[in-house]
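Can't paste images in this forum, so I'm doing it all in text. The chain is below; anyone willing to post the predicted structure tokens underneath?
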Amino acid sequence: MRRKRGFTVLEMIVTVAILAVTTGMITLSINNIFSSSARKCAQETDALLSQTRIDAMSRTGGATLHLYRVDNTVRADCTVGTETVRTETVGDARCTVTYTVAGVPQTLDAGGFVITFKRDTGAFDFTRNSWGADTDTGRKTCSAITVAAGGRTYTITLYPATGAHVLGGAA
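Text version of the structure:
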């Protein structure tokens, strides 16, 4: 009778294949969890931009959206006149948010940034936005807000002259 001294090559191949498939599934699941955070943050920020623009055009006193990071979350305050009408957590610690001003990406921090819309046109109100004035043109424009997490990146492209914005899919 033969004594078994270990595993056969076939048993080893099957074991390694099972481990590889399991590892791949776990990696995809984790990636989906992180990318869903980015998608949620981008969608909620886009929705708040729309709502703030509508508020600016339909109410007196102007409307602003303040996006900032606090306690490892991305927060947004919507203000109409001098009253904060809503404060929402739009992203968690997994989300990295940057905004592009005058072609230079800047990482969202505790100070954040403010976008203000004009009541008559819905365009950005450059006199009240937080990034100040450009010495050449008299104004700086925020052209994009980018949200990244889990290997996915979503970009909200902003059109300051009209106040319009478009949420781009994952890259």
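Confidence is low (pLDDT under 50) at residues 132-138. Residues 95 and 149 are 5 Å apart (CA to CA).
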